[in-house]
Amino acid sequence: MNVLDRKAIAAHVLRYLAGAQARGRLVRLDELACEVGVRRKDVREIVSSLHAEGHVDATRMTLTMTGLVLATSMHDSTLRAVRNVPEAPVQSNVA
Fold first, then answer.
1. C-alpha distance from residue 63 to each of 4, 13, 50, 51, 91 (Å)
2. d(Cα 53, Cα 21) in Å, to the nearest integer?
3. Which of 10, 40, 62, 88 could lock onto 33 through a cystine, CB 3.0 to 4.6 A?
4. Tens digit of pLDDT for each residue in 40-78?
5. Which residues, at least 6 apart from 3, have a Cβ–Cβ distance to it below 8 Å?
6. Cα–Cα distance between 94 and 75 in angstroms, integer?
7. Domain covering 3-76, topology
8. According to the 3-state scheme, what is the secondary structure of the chain?
9. pTM for the whole thing?
């Protein structure tokens, strides 16, 4: 079972919006969901959270100054995967 990592999704959203904003492109929610690889509902929740924190303007789907700073600070970083697969417990073969 895959578990979504909300912080990783937020990082991917910030980075993608920063790239689109730098190119002068507008981003739709479904495009963002497809790029990040999660459901539209999950991206909407993340964008709403980032909007509440002041990092994203959800009506324009653009970054605020603080969002731009966060995205810029993550520019050269390797982002975590948005899905974490829990590891199976190790079984010992004791006879």
1. 23, 10, 9, 9, 47
2. 19
3. 40
4. 999 999 999 999 999 999 999 999 999 999 999 888 877
5. 83, 84, 85, 86
6. 48
7. Arc Repressor Mutant, subunit A (1.10.10)
8. CCEECHHHHHHHHHHHHHHHHHCCCCCCHHHHHHHHCCCHHHHHHHHHHHHHCCCEECCCCEECHHHHHHHHHCCCCCCCCCEECCCCCCCCCCC
9. 0.81
